[in-house]
Amino acid sequence: MPESAAEWYARVRAAVESDGYREAPWPAWPTWPFDGSMEVRALDGPTDEAPRNGTDGVDCAQCERSRVDDPSAYIFWRDDLAMLGAPFQQTSLPFRCYLMPRRHADLSDLTPEEAARLGVLLTYTERAACEVLDLPRVQVARWGDGAEHLHWWLFARPTGMAQLRGTFVTLWEELLPLSDPAALRADLDLVAARLVELAGGTALPAPSD
Question: Would residue 209 count as lying in a domain?
Answer without folding.
Answer: no
